[in-house]
Structure formats: structure tokens, C-alpha cells
Fold this sequence. Notes:
- The chain is mainly α.
- The chain has a domain at 19-61.
- The protein has 2 helices and no strands.
- Helix 1 (16-26) crosses helix 2 (31-62).
- The radius of gyration is 21 Å and the shape is elongated.
- The mean pLDDT is 91.
Amino acid sequence: MALARTRSHKHFQLDAGKLKRAQRALRAKTETETIERALDVVITEHLRNRLTVEANDRFVKSGVNVRDAYGTLDK
């Protein structure tokens, strides 16, 4: 999901343990790659959540009547 390849130098104080765990989880070779992959995951998840909310809103507004075919919701 990489967009423009403009880079800027930033300086952060990060938890070394979290960074190493994220590096292993994301299978990244460097700390920079780890942070970039983690940001990509967050951006992708945000997009997925937004699309899910939009789809749910469309479903609710459609007025579809959902019935309980197995009769388990009345209990």
C-alpha cells in the first residue's frame, strides 16, 4: 500500500521490546521496514473498517427484513 516514496527523518523513543516483537511478527529486516509495514497494516485496517461500516449502514437503510429461520433469537 506504499504511496509516494517521500521520506522524512523522524526521531522517536520506542519500546525496544515492542519493536522487536513487531519486527518478528511482520518479518521485517530493519526497524524502519517494521514501522513502515506496521503503518501500512494500520492504514489498511482503517480502510477495511470504514468500508464495513458503510456496507452495514447501506444494509440497515435498505429495509431488508431479517427473520430468525431457526427461532433461536426469541429465547
